[in-house]
Design a protein that fits this description.
This protein is α/β, with parallel strands linked by helices. The chain has helices spanning 28-36, 54-62, 125-134, 147-152, 154-161, 171-178, 183-193, 232-247, 252-269, 283-296, and strands at 3-6, 10-16, 19-26, 42-48, 65-72, 79-83, 92-97, 117-120, 140-144, 166-170, 197-201, 207-211, 214-218. A hairpin with an 8-residue loop joins strand 6 and strand 7.
């Protein structure tokens, strides 16, 4: 079986210096699964409220995302409202309404429990461990987290990390988690918690991949127009994990390719609000930008 993601499906209201969007489709699992669907089969586990439009579920199905794990519960769908200044690396949260997501208890359909690859999106680390008790024998487990859980449930998060192969985290969160200002030292410390691979997202400054004692740096794609960075990290994760799930190759070479592929998907995501830009990409566009990334970082050796 392919790639399983457990996370949030939400409505976002976002304002940036370049425009705004109200009650658009969002959520960590939505961005992740849409991005990953360009590379592999994806099974989605999340919860929505009775106000969630059928058109959004139809969109997910159109992307060949298995939605049998998307539960509709009495109440309203999770909502997030935020804004960005000209520094698009950090959002200011204006309002969060957890609604049905507040009591979300992931219960995997039997068909999902044999997943080869599991991605635990940004949810309570207690729930992330609960998901792992329901999966039979995954070959690879990856996890994303955020400052809220690092601050409020650090011990639980550390416990969960002991069961994880790959951690996705941004630079400020890596420093917060470890108490170390240097990212190389922070990655080494996180290795001691359990994950053998650490992916540190650095927004417009690119990505650092730490694996097996080596470090790989991928740049961010230089864009003239960045409209909305919401979901960029989850879109990156979807491209990364989807690429790996497609090949089932966990070598360092493939991890480096996956890092660039994740960056490709994130670069498309930020070109418009919500999932508008990544709804119907042509795979040739993805391949073309992957090759452009390679040119960005190429240089000749010394004679």
């Amino acid at each position: 079986m392919g790639l399983l993601v457990v996370g949030s499906v939400a409505f976002d209201s976002v304002k940036t210096p370049f425009g705004e969007a109200e009650d658009v489709l969002g959520g960590s699992a939505t961005y992740f699964s849409t991005s990953a669907s360009y590379f592999t089969d994806v099974s989605l586990v999340a919860v929505v409220g009775e106000d969630f439009p059928k058109k959004h579920i139809d969109f997910l199905k159109l992307r060949n995302i298995d939605t049998r794990g998307l539960v509709t519960a009495p109440g309203k769908t999770f909502r997030w409202k935020g804004q960005y200044g000209f520094d698009l690396n950090e959002a200011q949260t204006l309002d969060t309404q957890l609604n049905v997501f507040e009591t979300f208890k992931p219960d995997l359909p039997e068909e999902y429990r044999g997943a080869d690859i599991v991605f635990l999106a940004n949810i309570d680390p207690d729930l992330q461990r609960e998901v792992l008790t329901q999966v039979k024998d995954p070959k690879l487990v990856a996890l994303d987290t955020m400052n809220f859980w690092i601050e409020g449930k650090r011990d639980s998060l550390i416990k969960t990390l002991s069961q994880v192969d790959i951690l996705f985290i941004n630079d400020s969160e890596a420093r917060q988690l470890t108490g170390m200002p240097n990212l190389v030292k922070a990655a080494r410390e996180i290795n001691s918690y359990g994950p053998r691979t650490i992916v540190i997202k650095r927004g417009e400054y690119g990505v650092l991949l730490f694996h097996g004692g080596s470090v790989f740096a991928a740049p961010a794609y230089p864009l003239e127009d960045v409209f909305d960075p919401t979901g960029a990290g989850d879109t990156f994760g979807g491209g990364f994990m989807g690429f790996i799930a497609n090949s089932m190759d966990f070598s360092e070479s493939t991890l480096r390719q996956a890092t660039v592929m994740g960056s490709v998907m994130a670069s498309y995501n930020v070109e418009d609000f919500s999932l508008n830009r990544i709804r119907d990409l042509d795979y040739k566009e993805i391949e073309a930008r992957f090759r452009e990334f390679k040119k960005l970082a190429h240089f000749d050796d010394l004679d």
